[in-house]
Amino acid sequence: MDLPTIQNAALLKSALEGLNSTPKGLESKWFYDNAGSHLFEEITELEEYYPTRTELAILTDNAALLEKYVPAASVLAELGSGASRKTRVLLDQFTQLAAYLPTDISGPFLNQVAQQLRHDYPRLTIDPIVADFTSPIPLPAKYADTAKTAFFPGSTLGNLSRDDAISLLSRIRKWNNVTGFILGVDLVKDTQILLDAYNDAQGITADFNLNLLHRMNREIGAVFEVNKFAHEARWNDAASRIEMYLVSLTDQTVPIGPKGIKFSKGETIHTENSHKYTRESLSEMAALSGWGVSEFLTDADNLFAVAVLTP
Ligand code: AVJ
What we know:
Elements: H1 6-19, E1 24-25, H2 34-43, H3 50-61, H4 63-67, E2 75-79, H5 87-93, E3 99-104, H6 107-120, E4 125-126, E5 129-130, E6 148-152, H7 162-173, E7 178-186, H8 191-197, H9 204-220, E8 229-236, E9 241-248, E10 252-254, E11 261-263, E12 268-275, H10 279-288, E13 292-298, E14 304-310
Parallel strand pairs: 1-12, 2-3, 2-6, 3-4, 3-5, 6-7
Antiparallel strand pairs: 7-14, 8-9, 9-12, 10-11, 13-14
Helix pairs in contact: 2-9
Bound molecules: N,N,N-trimethyl-histidine (AVJ).
């Protein structure tokens, strides 16, 4: 087994904590190693996974309106930027920007994307920041006095509990000179549409979920037999969220950490929550965080929304 690096020491700690809890769980931020980031990009192209293309269409249709909320010589800071594919719609429109600050937890993926953006937007400063949006984002001091727009698309907010979502909204509200927040949120809708989006026919979402086990094998010396676990997605109506699990297909003990972890057949590891919102539920969370909802832009089928929050 390789010596743990600082990064996988954090994974080891989080994994042992989560897998020794009852019920078992893993933090969903661990999905996004290099393999997981690429699998997520594949998910965004699936027929069943409507959020990405729907949000992209909303952003495209409303780019000129969104531009009105973005001051001249300001910066656009994105949380969890991934491939920054949707951001290109904004970068094409927001020619007044001084800089784009993509932030992502996956350093190698982020730097790859930043290089490509520098090539495609030669007149724009691209300042990538390796950061985990569940903690305060370390914005470079040189931007302290610059007007800032936060961009958090993809309904990634939905991964957070209500309390953590309100904390995140509040932290961004306290950024020096923040002038707006463009926030993508997935909406409550027909349950079958939601279940299909998280359990696609090609099994890419299953691979994405199971990659957590491969990752623990690669990075912290765990020995999961990945074919002895299965992907499952459920709708939790009371909490208004999709929940993803890895289900143990047999009684088993998995070598990991000092003792190994026991699973009984049918036991689950809760790996993700993906909250779905209404205009009302989002407005309430925004108000509790010191924001007003200036725009709530949706598609014709009300699948997804892009909100513009202002101080
Ligand atoms: C990146 C959190 C928005 O919740 O839809 C996709 C992640 N998980 N399929 C989501 C995800 C399973 C995604 N977010």
